[in-house]
Amino acid sequence: MIETKTANRQSMYDTVMNQFHKTADIINLNPNIKKILGITNNEIIVHFPVKMDNGKVAVFTGYRVQHNNALGPYKGGLRYHPTVDVDAAKALAMWMTWKTSLAGLPYGGAKGGIQIDPRNYSDAELERITRRFTYALGENIGPEHDIPAPDVNTNTQTMAWIADTYMSTISTSERSQNQHVVTGKPVGSGGLEGRDRATGFGVFLTIKELVKSRGENLKGKTFIVQGFGNVGYWASKFLTEEGALLVSVQDAHATLYNAEGISVEDLFEHSSPRKGSIQGFTGAREIDPKHFFGLKCDILIPAALGNQITEENAYQIKAGIVAEGANGPTNPEGEKILLENGITIIPDILCNSGGVIGSYFEWLQNRNGELWELEEVMQKLEKKILQVFKKVQTEVAERETDWRTAAYIIAISRIETAYRQRGIFP
Ligand code: GLU
To answer: Ligand 1 mean position to 22 CA, how many Å?
Structure first.
């Protein structure tokens, strides 16, 4: 079962700090810059009241952590999940800084959300919660300052509500120019064609390239996926279209297995109306969740929450490739075991960077008053993801290191260069 224990929340922050310090030592990061990057610039916590369907008022707590903006406006998602708190948002914001830097985007890193399980609320309540959260954040977000996007349990609808609320509460003359305050909007409201599949496409493409670099292809390769949300679904769809076989899917409610392959579309149709749950699907049998990681397969895609692969289960993993669709799914102890066992990890900041790259395209599209077509978007996305992949691949070869270390070296060095060039105000 997907692990959401309180004890694990704190350690997402430990994980990102551990990765950061390790890289800082390798590249001999300037000590002043190390101090700056080791903290989060702003941690915004807002409490706001919302009228519930039953007439009562409930007070919610929302978070937005802005880690660093040396390379451009803060960028990163908003998640609605019981595990959201300030430490989780800090860790996730830092990962966004490394991700946007690695991808060569003109952005910094941020993350936030609300500590709720959205399944406990009606759509009307979720709309009021989202709008009131946006209002509470006020000028802490903005199209040239901090640009949220979808993340766990948020989607195009959430972004449309945020954009509408933001634009309704700023001065009339500025309204039409501020659509790019969020990315991941519905296509009809300034959203980008293809943004929905961008993250999953990147997960698929990085796996495909890695497999290709070994002189193999995806045909007949078996894979298992943890989390069947937007990322898990699209990654599975692209992989199966190239002949790979989805043999197991796990979510918070069930673990499904079918050695003959699970139909991605059937599972999607089954799970969507049930707010994403895969439970009760008849095209596979339900197995004990604790057997998931130990299943025989070529590729494992954790595409749910952080800290899922740990010292407690890493030794069971039989896949040769772990492709991190989620942010921070592997803790340092788990990673050590995977690397010792010769497993290649495609790190989150590379593997799932298709999402924020897609967001960047949407932001440009809005800023320039353009409308891009799906084909054009997918081509641009592919080109950009491959560029980033190759950069990391070269670093891996030159340094004879693992993929995460290589990705971190590139990401942090880029920010260090920017600080060195500009100096520190005043
Ligand atoms: N939430 C996604 C991520 O973790 C997308 C962020 C964005 O597009 O700004 O990368």
So the answer is: 24
Residue ranges per structural domain of the chain: 39-179, 198-351
Residues annotated as catalytic (active site), given as ranges: 111
Say whether 175 sits in a helix, a strand or coil.
helix
Question: How far is the C-alpha of 227 from the C-alpha of 256, rounded, in Å?
Answer: 11
Q: How far is the CA of 226 from the centre of ligand 1 (A)?
A: 18
What pLDDT does 348 receive? 98
CATH architecture of 39-179: 3-Layer(aba) Sandwich (3.40)
Residue 416: CB atoms within 10 Å: 21
Per-residue confidence (pLDDT) for residue 3, from 0 to 100? 58
Kindly provide the residue ranges of all beta strands, DSSP E only, lying in 89-197, ordered along the sequence: 109-114, 146-150
**pLDDT the model gives residue 6:** 44
Q: Is the CB of 356 under 6 A from ligand 1?
A: yes
More confident residue, 104 or 1: 104
Amino acid of residue 318: K
The secondary structure of 309-343 as a DSSP string is B-TTTGGG---SEEE--SSS-B-HHHHHHHHHTT-
Spatial CB neighbours of 222, under 8 Å, sequence gap ≥ 6: 244, 245, 246, 247, 296, 297, 298, 299
Residue 200 Cβ contacting ligand 1 at under 6 Å? no
> Rounded distance, CA 9 to CA 89, Å?
10
CA-based angle 172:180:273, to the nearest 5? 110
Sign of CA dihedral 217, 218, 219, 221: positive
Burial of 238-256, coded b for 16+ CB within 10 Å and e otherwise, reads bbbeeebbbbbbbbbbbbb
Instruction: Provide the pLDDT for residue 8.
Output: 47
Confidence of residue 7 (pLDDT cuts 50, 70, 90): very low
- Asked if the domains 39-179 and 198-351 are classified in one and the same CATH topology, the answer is yes
Only one residue has tokens 């592997």, namely 330
**Tell me: the pLDDT tens digits for 387-396?**
999 999 999 9
Cα(164)–Cα(181) distance, rounded to whole angstroms? 10
State the closest ligand 1 atom to the C-alpha of 360, by its place in the atom list counted from 1. Answer: 8
Q: Quick one: pLDDT at residue 144?
A: 96
- Determine whether the shortest distance from the Cβ of 112 to ligand 1 is under 6 A: no
Q: Which two tokens stand for residue 246?
A: 């989805």
Q: Which fold has domain 198-351?
A: Rossmann fold (3.40.50)
